[in-house]
Amino acid sequence: MYTSTQDDGRDPLTLALDALPVEHLEVRPGRNVAVHVRQSAAAEVGSIFWVHGSAASMLQWEAQIDYFASIGYRCIAYDFLGCGRSAKPVSWDAYSQRALLADLLAIVLRFRSPAGLPNIGVGHSAGCGLLVRLQAQQALQFGGGARLDRLVLVAPPASVPST
Questions:
Q1: pTM metric for this prediction
Q2: Is the Cβ–Cβ distance between 15 and 2 less than 8 Å?
Q3: Integer Cα distance of 163 and 155 in angstroms
Q4: Which of 79, 80, 102, 147 sits most deeply, having the most CB atoms within 10 A of its CB?
């Protein structure tokens, strides 16, 4: 049964925020995003990058992060610029697909697992579009450093927005 507060008096949003603590990182000059990295207590078997949809938050991935971290995956989730706990600049250009894609690229490059361990991208809605575009961009660059080994697309949009 849903209640508006837990036994200790904290509301569900506060509990979710506590479950996914973040570090605010400058992923590119002037681009500050909230990033949650959960190291697995088990031997690392790879990394999963969790990419939420438009106007959403990494909080949607809390249960999945809990599970996959428990079986050995390092989990990396972030809030797009303008979403969740990330910076919210006024400039319209800050939210372009090109800018959001460059942020994702920077995060993947920074947190990739070492060679030999898989790097997996899981996206929802608009996050699927970013992951597909990242893969295509990296394939055109002859398998560049941010190419992910696998993608999981949850409710992808009918078409990927152009840059």
A1: 0.86
A2: no
A3: 21
A4: 80
Alpha helices in 2-161 (DSSP H): 12-19, 62-70, 97-111, 126-140
Q: 3-class DSSP state for residue 65?
A: helix
- The radius of gyration of the chain's CA atoms, rounded to the nearest angstrom, is 16
Does residue 10 surpass a pLDDT of 90? no
163 pLDDT tier (thresholds 50, 70, 90)? very low
Q: How far apart are CA 93 and CA 102, in angstroms?
A: 13
User: What is the reported pLDDT for 71?
Assistant: 94
Q: Which of 52-61, 125-134, 141-150 has the lowest mean pLDDT?
A: 141-150
Which residues are within 8 A (CB) of 88 and not within 5 positions of it... i.e. 6 or more apart? 81, 82
The strand ranges marked E within the chain are 23-28, 31-38, 46-51, 73-78, 119-124, 150-154
